């Protein structure tokens, strides 16, 4: 970060969004509820910040701070100013908020897409209870490699033009291995083009791992250097089999774990995805223990979100969500397992300053076989989309002429701007846009303020590598 020198005649004060947390006798952590920038300081930072309890001149404050600071006091104050921990004394909360939203909106006017998801299959071999794909009528087809190739032909020039140096391609379905031949061809096309355009590319496959044959395991093994596989598994056997069932209503745990062992044996990077609900809440630690024995080194946990009244009865309460995350985080830490999830966007982005919104639509685009473009796979089959793919799509989105993208961001920023007229105008109420959508709320509403604030209280005290290492970020 480039340190900024405050204007000499300007008085500074502590940001109204400042959070200061003393961890122990040697460490204090500081971040902004608006700009993030989580930073660890020694305990002298408390005395430095106290100098700005009332408006103060930076130069005069640095002279005082130099009497007790171990490091250069002027550089420290410049750092505090650059990270928005200190702000101009004449700016109030609403002015800072509006300025921040305006800057981020300008920054995201032209999206820099670095994550592209192909919904390669319109079929699934399971009948999981409460699957979000059943919420809406997703009328797509099996994706062809020819159609994906058209998207790729525009994608790579777009990446080069916008100085995007790395790309993540994800394959989802329903179940992507049900269209294995097309997925392989798309993979080969991407590899060829990434070499041609010098774009570092990796691949993620999200699978239920229910029906994998010898050829699939062999293909995974041949491509382990670029692949990562994420397998869905909702807890220990008795919990998983209450929800993740086949079309005969039979549990899937044993068959999935058998295939999971084989995937791990290939040496590919493999993690598991669990959806937390009342069905598996009581056995979180046991599940993590079982995953450790299998050799899993990363667990992603998302929150179950139901649509019907019966499905919503499976949802965890706010207190249960907090408890579940703490328990899983600590159980995973015991085994040296990385732990993340959708819910962590709010935490990571709030304390690192990753511009308050998930990648959906801004860093990530999802393509279905019928040509419809979505900001997130969960919106497949809904009116929340960027229209149908045409050959000039990448050109339009590079030149701010994509109406779907403009509507998406306008809705987001319009709602955020409205916050400046209310109390509690920080960004702690971020929620996954899909959750807001199915609750028929504005996608920028403070739907999960209490949940996120309690998460922040927990994570601000955690080891830094447990907060941000390989976590979802914008």
From TrEMBL:
Q: Does the keyword Ribonucleoprotein apply?
A: no
Q: Which GO terms describe its molecular function?
A: iron-sulfur cluster binding; metal ion binding; oxidoreductase activity
Q: Which InterPro entries match?
A: Aldolase_TIM, rSAM, rSAM_sf, Sulphatase_maturase_rSAM
Any Pfam family: Radical_SAM
Query: Please, which domain of life does this record's source organism belong to?
Result: Bacteria
Q: Which Gene3D superfamilies does UniProt cross-reference here? A: Aldolase class I
Span of domain Radical SAM core? 120-289
Alphabetized, the UniProt keywords read: Iron, Iron-sulfur, Metal-binding, S-adenosyl-L-methionine
**Species name for this entry?**
Desulfococcus multivorans DSM 2059
Q: What is this protein called?
A: Radical SAM domain protein
Q: Which coenzymes or cofactors are required?
A: [4Fe-4S] cluster
């Amino acid at each position: 970060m480039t340190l900024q020198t405050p204007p000499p005649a300007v008085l500074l004060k502590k940001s109204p969004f400042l959070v200061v947390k003393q961890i122990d006798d040697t460490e204090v952590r500081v971040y902004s509820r608006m700009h993030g920038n989580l930073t660890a300081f020694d305990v002298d930072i408390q005395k430095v910040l106290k100098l700005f309890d009332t408006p103060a001149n930076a130069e005069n404050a640095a002279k005082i701070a130099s009497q007790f600071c171990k490091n250069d006091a002027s550089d420290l104050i410049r750092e505090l100013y650059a990270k928005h921990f200190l702000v101009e004394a004449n700016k109030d909360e609403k002015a800072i908020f509006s300025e921040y939203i305006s800057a981020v909106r300008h920054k995201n006017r032209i999206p820099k897409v670095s994550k592209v998801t192909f919904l390669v299959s319109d079929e699934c071999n399971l009948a999981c209870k409460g699957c979000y794909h059943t919420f809406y009528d997703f009328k797509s087809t099996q994706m062809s490699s020819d159609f994906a190739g058209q998207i790729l032909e525009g994608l790579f020039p777009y990446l080069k033009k916008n100085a995007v140096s790395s790309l993540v391609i994800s394959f989802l379905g329903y179940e992507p291995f049900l269209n294995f031949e097309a997925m392989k061809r798309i993979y080969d096309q991407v590899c060829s083009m990434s070499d041609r355009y010098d774009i570092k590319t990796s691949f993620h496959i999200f699978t239920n791992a229910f029906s994998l044959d010898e050829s699939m395991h062999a293909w995974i093994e041949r491509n382990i250097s670029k692949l990562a596989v994420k397998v869905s598994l909702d807890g220990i056997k008795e919990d998983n089999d209450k929800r993740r069932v086949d079309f005969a209503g039979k549990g899937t745990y044993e068959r999935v774990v058998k295939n999971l062992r084989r995937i791990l044996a290939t040496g590919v990077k493999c993690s598991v995805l669990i959806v937390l609900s009342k069905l598996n809440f009581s056995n979180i630690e046991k599940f993590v223990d079982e995953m450790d024995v299998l050799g899993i080194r990363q667990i992603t946990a998302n929150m179950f979100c139901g649509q019907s009244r019966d499905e919503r009865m499976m949802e965890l309460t706010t207190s249960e969500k907090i408890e579940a995350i703490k328990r899983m985080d600590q159980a995973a830490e015991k085994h040296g397992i990385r732990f993340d999830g959708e819910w962590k966007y709010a935490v990571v982005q709030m304390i690192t300053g990753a511009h308050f919104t998930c990648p959906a639509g801004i860093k990530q685009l999802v393509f279905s076989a019928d040509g419809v473009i979505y900001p997130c796979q969960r919106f497949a089959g809904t009116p929340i989309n960027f229209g149908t793919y045409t050959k000039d799509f990448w050109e339009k989105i590079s030149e701010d002429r994509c109406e779907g993208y403009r509507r998406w961001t306008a809705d987001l920023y319009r709602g955020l701007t409205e916050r400046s007229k209310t109390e509690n105008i920080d960004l702690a109420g971020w929620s996954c846009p899909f959750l807001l959508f199915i609750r028929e709320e504005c996608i920028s509403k403070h739907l999960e303020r209490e949940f996120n604030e309690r998460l922040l209280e927990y994570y601000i005290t955690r080891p830094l590598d447990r907060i941000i290492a390989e976590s979802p970020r914008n």
